[in-house]
Amino acid sequence: MMMEHADLVLHVARFAGALRARGVDVGIGDALDATAALTLIDLRDRHELRQAMRTTLKIRPRDAETFDLLFDQYWLGRTADPRQNPRVREQSIVGRGRRALSDRVQPADPARSPAPAGDTPSYSPESLLRRKPFDECSPAELAAMERLLARLTPRLATRASRRLVPARKGGVVDLRRSFRRATGTAGEFIALARRRRRIEEPRLVVLCDTSGSMDAHARFLLAFALSLRRAVRRTEIFVFNTSLTRVTTWVSPGKMRHTLDCLASGVPDWSGGTRIGESLAEFVTRHGRELVTRRTVVLILSDGLDRGDVTRVGEAMRTIRSRARRVIWLNPLAGDPRYEPTARAMQAALPFIDAVAPAHNLESLERALVEVSA
Predict the structure, then answer these.
(1) Residue 165 to residues 161, 195, 278, 299, 366: CA-CA distances in angstroms?
(2) 3-state class of 4 per DSSP?
């Protein structure tokens, strides 16, 4: 669905007003920047839309929760509080013909009931599940989350890059090529040249910590890794604790629960000690040159608590960073607002990481996908 520029200005202005009504400092200049940004992105991609709005409106960490609540209400067409913005539901972009945007991830749970309608904001069971920490979930809730993941990660495999390539139809007009064509037809524009964003499948290497300190999170983070593998063909998965194990070939399509059980029983020293430095060094020595190129995103899932030689962490990370396109570290501890990366292994790794992001619940993993596909 395309929108006129005037419509975008109106929607952004009303959204900015709703934020100010909740005490979020958003200026006119910020709203103008947001409007300009929305003309450059795919409005159907809710993650890209959220990221663009958060960045251009300069949302501070203390206002993030308010921003997320109002964003879901206003831009995704969810139940809103008419006292804050009487036209939220009426003016929702996605609510007009794009309801699928807010329903992209749905748990396959027959017991799920729709969120109650009313005059005050409410949360569906899915929304509550997405925000619940992994270490507080029951086995049934973790199973529902795994189903959510199976529907979340395929967006990576179809994400358009920012690079524009020639196209026969659709996309945007390529003025330079159009004028060049016209020189061969006496200045007549018989057919306009076009460009569109290229679809690129990323290359991923996932390194997941399965030590004892990660016990409450490892299983679900591995489910995340397996979902990435199912969605993105060029994904390699390793687990590490006191040593490194390549588990890519263990993945059975459509058998996530069976695969996770096999990993838990077959990986040496599962829930044991941690030697992050030695494990990363082993990866660099045995697999780095083969698997890590300038098109590879390296994703490390770990709390950064290491019992080994942390100097080797920095050495290995330096090598990985020199070869990879991006290095992202997902840390379950970062979900706590009070978290600071003071662990020695994290301190050693930080200079060579492009982004450190939380990985304590499903919502944080959704946001991590934005970093992975950036």
Answers:
(1) 10, 5, 43, 28, 28
(2) coil
Residue 338 exposed, middle or buried by CB count within 10 Å (0-12, 13-18, 19+): exposed
Of 129, 72, 123, whose CA–CA distance to 102 is shortest?
A: 72
- Contacts of residues 216-220 at CB distance under 8 Å and 24 or more positions apart, as own/partner, are 216/134, 216/135, 216/332, 217/134, 217/135, 217/303, 217/332, 217/359, 217/360, 218/271, 219/142, 219/260, 219/264, 220/134, 220/137, 220/142, 220/145, 220/146
Question: What is the arithmetic mean of pLDDT over 181-185?
Answer: 74
| Mean pLDDT value of segment 75-84 | 54
**14 neighbors 7 (Cβ within 8 angstroms):** no
Percent of the chain with pLDDT over 70: 75
At 163 the three-state DSSP class reads strand
Per-residue pLDDT, averaged over 297-303, amounts to: 95
Which pLDDT tens digit goes with each residue over 213-257?
Answer: 998 888 888 888 888 887 788 899 999 999 999 998 887 656 667
Q: How far apart are CA 357 and CA 365, in angstroms?
A: 9
| DSSP conformation class of 76 | S
Select the more confidently predicted residue: 196 or 316.
Answer: 316
- List CB contacts of 150: < 8 A, sequence separation 6 or more: 227, 230, 256
Interhelix angle 215-231/139-152, nearest 10 degrees: 30
Residue 332 has pLDDT above 80, yes or no: yes
List, in sequence order, every beta strand (DSSP E) within 61-191. 160-167, 172-173
Q: Nearest CA to 37 among 24, 22, 55, 20?
A: 55
Do 43 and 83 meet the contact criterion of CB atoms below 8 Å apart?
no
**C-beta separation of 240 from 207 below 8 A:** yes
Token pair recorded at residue 352: 């060579």
CATH number at 203-372: 3.40.50.410
**How does strand 296-301 pair with strand 203-209?**
parallel
Q: What is the pLDDT of residues 260-281, one digit of tens each?
A: 778 878 888 888 888 999 999 9
| pLDDT mean over 195-207 | 79
Region of poorest pLDDT, from 132-141, 219-228, 281-290, 319-328: 132-141
For the chain, the structural domain boundaries read 1-96, 162-199, 203-372
